[in-house]
Amino acid sequence: MIRVASLQINSRPFEVAENLEKARDWIEKAVSAGAKLVVLPEFFNLGYTYSDRLLEFSEPRDGPTVSWMKDLSAGLDIYLTGCFYEKDQDDYFDTLVITTPDRSALFYRKRHPAIWENIYFRPGDTPGVFTTGLARIGVAIFWDVVYRDTLEGLRGKVDLVLVSCAWPSLQIPGAGRLFKGVDWDLRRNAQVAPLRLAEELGVPVVFANRYGRFRSRMPFSGLRVSMPFLGQSAVVSAEGKLLKRLGMEEGMIVTEIEIPDRNEVRSNNFEKKKLRGKYIVPVPWVVRVFQGFWERFGRLIYFSRIRKNTNHQPPALGRPSISPGTNGTSPQPLPDQQKSSD
After folding, report:
1. Residue 321 falls within a domain, yes or no?
2. Is 242's pLDDT higher than 90?
3. Domain annotation covers residue 332
4. CA distance 196 to 207
5. What is the pLDDT of residue 319?
6. 333 pLDDT exceeds 50?
């Protein structure tokens, strides 16, 4: 049995030091409740918005946010999972990192940027599968979870899946019935996708989404939006049973999960038939159209404009006040999905 925590918290765009301080408070609460593994929402450090200012806050893998996470993992003796905006030479990625008590770091790059995200970072190309001292862990970020290739990339290879999200609603004022229906479908997808992953893979799933509101000026339209994040953070058993779920409020789930025997995981996956089609949940046709368009047009913008703006330094952050802490030399940037350790 492992005691895990899913944190559904808010973070303000570009207020990195403030966001990390808030995240640390919630992490310490989870650890006080016995959590050994803590999952944070997507871009917990940076906030989620669409803006060229994101480039100013991108970081390498040996940057301040990953160092901060390593210090917390070592000081609190936990596995910690969250996402940061990675800069690797001239490219940018939405990167999930797992830090461990021995200050190692494991990296995964989001393979399926959602709609307008394609403007701001490139997709990764490798499934998120890691062997740790805790379990064989599979990972995904937000929109990854609706795709069949994410599920198939984890099938039979993991004992536990962690998902970090910034999944907003589509409650657009004045958008009419069409988007209200799409919003309902997306809300349902946020609830169903973790259950589907657990059922198909035969392993527990820890799903952490954001709390608060998504406020941004939408690319090219000039439209300012303010929409709630969907929440629905959850922990699901290996049998696909919902153990706990939050609504749209700020909070955390701390609960125990049972890691299945590896032979049981293997047997379960042999019994499952491979899913057909591109998605594991019903994705509204409007979203599919937007996704297909921005995968092409957004990436043209990325290569013509975003990728060229590389002259900046990552923000300086203070170290967390924890004890015991450990210091060491920072690792060099690594290829996609490799391990680093001080």
Report:
1. no
2. yes
3. no
4. 12
5. 43
6. no
CA atoms within 13 A on the CB side of 74: 21
Alpha carbon 145 to its chain centroid, in Å, reads 10
Is the CB of residue 84 less than 8 Å from the CB of residue 55? no
Domain span including residue 253: 2-314
CA–CA gap between residue 44 and residue 20 (Å, rounded): 8
Instruction: Report pTM.
Output: 0.87
pLDDT at 223: 82
What CATH number does the domain containing 300 carry? 3.60.110.10
**In terms of C-beta density within 10 A (0-12 exposed, 13-18 middle, 19 or more buried), how is residue 91 classed?**
middle
Cis peptide preceding 324, ω within 30 of 0: yes
- Residue 213 CB: number of other CB atoms within 10 A? 15
Band the pLDDT of 328: cuts 50, 70, 90: very low
Helix or strand (DSSP H, E) at 27 = helix 16-32
User: Could you say which DSSP state residue 119 is in?
Assistant: G
Q: What is the pLDDT of residue 202?
A: 95
Neighbours of 232 (CB within 10 A): 22
The count of C-alpha atoms lying within 13 angstroms of the C-alpha of 28, restricted to the half-sphere facing its C-beta, is 13
Q: Is 203:129 a contact under the CB 8 Å cutoff?
A: no
267: amino acid identity, one letter: S
For the record, the structure tokens of 70 come out as 């390593």
Looking at the DSSP bridge assignments, the partners of residue 107 are 97
* Helix (H) or strand (E) segment spanning residue 129: strand 128-131
Helices and strands, number each (H, E), in the chain: 6, 15
Residue of 239, 279, 267 lying closest to 156 (CA atoms): 267
Domain tally for the chain? 1
Residue 80 in any domain: the answer is: yes
The answer to whether residue 140 is domain-embedded is yes
297-300 long-range contacts, Cβ below 8 Å, gap at least 24? 297/118, 298/113, 298/115, 298/116, 298/117, 298/118, 298/119, 299/118, 299/122
* CB-based contacts of 320, cutoff 8 Å, min separation 6: 20, 24, 68, 71, 72, 75
CA distance 187 to 169: 7
